[in-house]
Amino acid sequence: MGNLVFVAKETVADETRVAASIETVKKMKGLGFDIVVEAGAGALSRIPDGEYEAIGARIGFPQDAARADVILKVRRPTSEEIAGYRSGAIVIAIMDPYGNEAALADMARAGLTSFAMELMPRITRAQSMDVLSSQANLAGYQAVIEAAAVYDRALPMMMTAAGTVPAAKVFVMGAGVAGLQAIATARRLGAQVSATDVRPAAKEQVASLGAKFIAVEDEEFKAAETAGGYAKEMSKDYQAKQAALVAEHISKQDIVITTALIPGRPAPRLVSREMLKAMRPGAVAVDLAVERGGNIEGVEFGAVANVEGVKVIGYPNLAGRIPASASALYAKNLVTFLETMVDKNSKSLGLNRADELIKATMLTDGGEVVHPNFIDPDQPTVNKGDL
Q: Which residues of 99-119 are buried (b: 16+ CB within 10 A; e: fewer)?
C-alpha cells in the first residue's frame, strides 16, 4: 500500500472543522506519509493554507483525492466525493452510519475501506482516539457559553454597592462527558448548578464538581446500574416519580441544558412545554440532542426559539462552533488511530484486520458492508470483480 494522505475540505453546510492540524500533519510526515491538504480546508479552524505548506504539506484540489491512499474527513463523504476516490482507499471520518445504510452501500460499491470514528470501543487503549468524548467535552462547554450569551442576566452572584445580583440557577440533565463539562463550566462562571442522571454512579461525579444531584434515590435507583456500568430500564412508577421531581425542580431554574443523545435512536423527550411554561421569565434551555429530534419539546433545529416564554437553543454541532479547539482534538484522535495502521519498520500502511480497533470501526471493505450492525440481509453483496 502507498503513503499519500489527502485531507479534505468539508462540503457539508456549516461544518467548520478540519481533519488535520499542524501538529498532526507533522506527526503523519514522521510516520512516512506525504500529505495533500485541499485548499481552504483549515480556513475556518484558523489554519491558513500557508501554515500547512510551511511544514511540508502540499495544497491541492478535490481531484487530488483520486490518488490518495488515505482520506481524512470530519463528516462522511458525499456521493459526489466518493465518485472521486480510488477503489481500495482508506477513508476515516465521523460516519453517522445509523439510518444511513444507502450511504454505506455507496462506499462499499466504490471499493472503499471506511472507518467510523464514533464506533471506537471504550477501552483504555483507545481513549486517545475517542472522538465522542473529545467533541462532547467541547459541546458541553459551548452549551453553557451559548446559554450565557442569550441569558439577559449575569451568571455569578455579584455583591455591589448598588445591590446584589443573585447567581443564576443552572440544571444539567445527563452527567455523561458533555454534561459533566457543562457542570464544570457553569460552576466556573459562578452559577448555582444542579444535575440529574439515571446512573447512581453519576451522583459522586456530579458532587465532585460542586453541583447538587437531583434524583429519586429509592432502592430501585440504587440498583439501577448493571455490572458493566450501564443504566437499567426503570419501572413506570419510578419514571413517574422522577419526572415529577424534575418538573418541580425545573420550575425554579434559569438555565436548563439537556444532553441525552443516543446514537441511532430518536432523542428521548426530557422537557415538555408544560415544564417550560413553569420556568421563570427570560429562562434559557439548550438542547444538545437537536440532531436526533431533541430532548426539549418545541426546539427548532439551528435556531433560538421562543417556547412558552423560554429561549430554547437548538444549535447542532456545538463543538463546531469552536472549530479551532474542536479540530485540534479531532485531528489528534484521527492521527492516533491512523498510527495503528502503520508498520513502524517499513513506514507503510498495513491493516491488521484482527485488531479490535479495526474490527470495531470498519464499516466497508473489499466491496462489502462488513460491520455486523449495518449489514442489510436484503441487499446483495457487491461482486468484487465488478469494482
A: eeeebbbbbbbbbbbbbbbbb
3-state secondary structure of 224: coil
- CB contact set of 339 (below 8 Å; sequence gap of 6+): 27, 31
pLDDT tens per residue across span 97-130: 998 999 999 999 999 999 999 999 999 999 999 9
Query: How far is the C-alpha of 2 from the C-alpha of 191, rounded, in Å?
Result: 53
Nearest to 322 by CA among 71, 175, 183, 140: 140
Given the DSSP bridges, would you call strands 163-165 and 158-160 parallel, antiparallel or unpaired? antiparallel
Rg of the chain over all Cα atoms, to the nearest angstrom = 23
Q: Residue 384: its pLDDT value, please? A: 31
Which spans in the chain are helix H?
Answer: 22-30, 49-54, 79-83, 101-109, 131-150, 177-188, 202-208, 219-222, 236-250, 273-277, 323-339, 356-361
Active site residues: 122, 127, 130, 133, 230
For the beta sheet containing 34-38, the strands, ordered from the edge strand earlier in sequence to the opposite edge, are: 58-60, 34-38, 4-7, 70-75, 90-94, 113-116, 362-365, 368-369
Among 296, 277, 278, which residue's Cα sits nearest to residue 286? 296
Total residue count of the chain as it appears in this document: 387
Residue 230's pLDDT is 54
Q: Which among 375, 309, 377 is positioned nearest to 104, based on CA atoms?
A: 375
Cell of 324: 479551532
- For the chain, domains (ranges, CATH) are 4-129+323-367 (3.40.50.720), 140-321 (3.40.50.720)
Tell me the C-alpha distance between 266 and 99, whole Å: 11
CA dist., res. 365 & res. 352, Å (int):
13
150: helix, strand or coil:
helix
Q: Which of 247, 253, 291, 249 is nearest to 273 (CA)?
A: 247
Task: Give how far Cα 9 sits from Cα of 19, 39, 62, 172, Å.
Answer: 8, 7, 8, 35
